Amino acid sequence: MLNKYLYDKKIICPVCKGEFIMTKVKTSQLKVIERKSDFYTKYEGIEPFFYDVIVCSNCGYAALESEFDKITDISRNEILSKVTANWVKREFSGERTPQKALEAYLLSLYCSQLKKDKDIVFAKTCLRIAWIYRMLLDKDNENKYLKFSLDFYIKAYNGIDVYDEIQLTYMIGELNKMLDNKEEAKKWFSKVISHPDRHKNNLIVNLSRDEWQSLKE
Ligand SMILES: [Zn+2]
User: Fold this and answer.
1) How far is CA 61 from CA 43, 96, 109, 122, 178, in A?
2) What is the rounded distance in angstroms from the CA atom of residue 166 to the CA atom of residue 23?
3) pLDDT in tens, 118-151
4) pLDDT tier at 1 (50, 70, 90 boundaries)?
5) Number of Cβ atoms within 10 Å of the Cβ of 112
6) Contacts (Cβ under 8 Å, ≥6 apart) of 46
7) Dist CA 28 CA 201 (whole Å)
8) Closest C-alpha to 48, from 26, 63, 73
9) Contact 96, 24 (CB under 8 A)
10) CB 113: neighbour CB atoms within 10 A?
11) Which Pfam family, any one of them, does this sequence belong to (predicted)?
12) How far is the CA of 185 from the centre of ligand 1 (A)?
């Protein structure tokens, strides 16, 4: 029987056009236990972010749910020749262990490289991979993926796409803090605190003040 927070749904894969079953989280049922400063959120009885990556069991195409249908013909052919050609059919539906979630995320990261996804997609994917390594108590890989994530957040910050700049600035500060780059972290938190849009983002500004303060001490 499926975990009470989960349900199955049939979907069509945009790469192989086959049908498969994905498992989704009943978001209305979720109860927050704790929110970390890097936005990792602990819930009762389930890790919802384990299910953010959809993997087609037929062809191996994997992506964050928000990106799953965004695929060009060129990328589709890339996935077919580089992923599907070597794919051993296996299931990603049902409850995911940290190991299974990690496998899904690493596949998604590889498909993102083939699709040449935006920096922000890489930043988010790498951060979530770091969270899984943290759960698995693998500090080396956690730090490795935190660094990747930081590099992609900086690229996204410097890039032409428009995102929520305060949020990006905060994440760059936070990742620097986690990687023990204290001076860099303070610099980015200060940017948030003095940002022209600070009045629209009280939560982020307050978090930044707390983080800045904790680094000063
Ligand atoms: Zn497929």
Assistant:
1) 28, 17, 11, 16, 32
2) 33
3) 999 999 999 999 999 999 999 999 999 999 999 9
4) low
5) 21
6) 3, 5, 6, 25, 30
7) 25
8) 26
9) no
10) 12
11) DUF2225
12) 41
The size of the chain, in residues, is 217
Measured CA to CA, the distance from residue 71 to residue 65 in angstroms comes to 12
* E runs forming strands in the chain: 6-12, 19-25, 32-35, 41-43, 53-55, 62-64
CA distance linking residue 106 with residue 124, whole number of Å? 12
pLDDT tens figures, 104-123:
999 999 999 999 999 999 99
Domain range list for the chain: 6-152, 164-217
HEC string of 19-42? EEEEEEECHHHCCEEEECCCCCEE
Residue for token digits 């496998």?
103
- Cα(177)–Cα(173) distance, integer angstroms: 6
Dist. CA 178 → ligand 1 center (Å): 37
Report how far ligand 1's centroid is from the alpha carbon of 130 (Å): 26
